[in-house]
Amino acid sequence: MDPEGNINNKRLCVKNCHIEFCFKSNSPVARSPRTVISVIGSWSNWRIATPLQKEGSNKWFTELSLPPGEYSFRFMVGDSTDLHPVMAVSDKYERQEVVNRDGQRVMCNKIRVDVAPAFYLFYATGWRQCTLMYKMLKDGNPLTAAWQVAAMDDSPSRAEPCGENSRWKQAIIALPAGVDASDRDRYSMQFFIQGPRLGDSSDEDNAGGSRDSSRRRSSVRANNGNGNGAQQSAEDAAAARWFAPLPDDGVPGDLRSQVKVDTPDKQSTSACYQLRWPGGWKLQRGTITKFPCVTKPPVLLCADIDGTMVNEHSDKKEQFWMDARTKEFQEYWESNAALARSVLVFNTGRSKGQLIWLLKEKPMLAVPDVLITAVGTKIWYLPDGMRCFQDPTEVEWIEDKLWSNRLDEGWDLQQALSAAGEMFKLFNRDSAERVKWLDKGQEHPHRVALQVHTAVLDDLIERLQEAIDKRQLQARIIMSGAGDWRYVDVVHRLAGKLEALEWVRQVYGVPVERCATAGDSCNDILMLDGKMPAIVVGNAQEELVRWYHEQNDHGRIVLTDKPEAAGVLEGLARHGLY
């Protein structure tokens, strides 16, 4: 906490994610000293096998620390790193069918790692600073006589849930150490919100965005010893000073001062709010609602912008509905997904400067956390701390230098330009122009871009590959687009929309099954054609819809009924990621 009372960094650490994997077998192959027993799972995208230690004659075990999430795994008998029929499915674990890297359906074990057992409270308020006053109870009995104090921090959301200048605040109250999973629901919590001092005009008098002006925000005795947060008259009520520690024997006389408080409506039978069990909760306009998505792993959504998140139409009425769909997504994302630590990525043909211009023109567009540009050769991050408190059009986005340095290895821009330049001599011999320059690497040094007519497209790609091979370039060719003119990009062999997305996914540590991609055109096939759940929005181009119907994807890709950003929301819901 800094001298002004602001929380700079806070992390809840609970040792509840250490998972023991146990395998038993009397097979002669398994019991052979030369056989390695290991476990492999979706937490490493089926790439890393962890050996188990032998215990006794027929038992092997290991312990892994995994982030919250739902994982598939199998035990391996032998040292193969591929999914193989000899790998075991144990009766000890729940089973599920998954599709492996080769597109085969296989039976796997399933395990769920829950988030830390705690009360996760999100509070919609106009107060810039407020404190949570709470008592935790077990079987209805308070664990402490005194009201406990917890600062409510700013959440990672730009939403204004109660009108202009309001915000979502958050607090995490962990259960006592050593609580068994079967006992968690025996715990509940009573609380009220303490705001700024009465008469303090520096803060908004808009606590929870009450339903009406008669909503009570009278003062309370912060620690009256009865455990119910009973309200008192304005004349004799007392509460603690801002962030003052509360002693067990009540508020001493020198701390008696009046503060703004948020407690239930007059119609409520309780003088304070109540959370009946641990989990995610929201308090908005005097109403408490369950918020279960905060107890699940975060979601990473990677979407195209034009035609997917926003669209343009000459008809004003149509434009109104398009913007309304964009606004609907923004409101959902900022008041739900962002609160649950989810990550929004825009994977676009636009440059960073063009996105900043679009955010100014379209204030209803959700602000991304990450921007992938130039066919996956550039990755930009919104700076930490800037997501909520500064205009994203006025901050300097941070380029991922590790990614760009990775693309430096083996890349020669001049050789790539030389290879692409040969195509002009081969295919623009007569007056007909069939090849055009789009990017010579000035703005994006790991990319050379051409626009090519379909009449020579196949031949040009073959000749371009020969020119690359002749120069021994560490490069690949990416073709995209629709219509008579297509885009042909020469990029580093490790670059690409899907490759950059996978890099970002690993940076944030989001499991593959909690990631989703969304697009509307053939340009987006580069990221839709992966292993992540994919969304083709209802207004998609005919060529993309045709591609969708040709995919034997076992439900990994959905074609939505709704268009644009509303289709993205529909797709998230159908994938179970809403």
Structural features:
6-stranded antiparallel beta sheet, Ig-like_fold, Sucrose phosphatase-like domain-containing protein, hydrolase, 8-stranded mixed beta sheet, 578 residues, SPP-like_dom
How would you characterize the overall build of this protein?
19% of the residues lie in helices and 28% in strands. The protein is of the alpha+beta class and 578 residues long. The strands form six sheets. It has an eight-stranded mixed beta sheet, with helices on both faces. Strands 10, 11, 12, 15, 16 and 17 form a six-stranded antiparallel beta sheet that branches. α9 links the parallel β29 and β30. The chain starts with 17 loop residues before the first strand and ends with a helix.
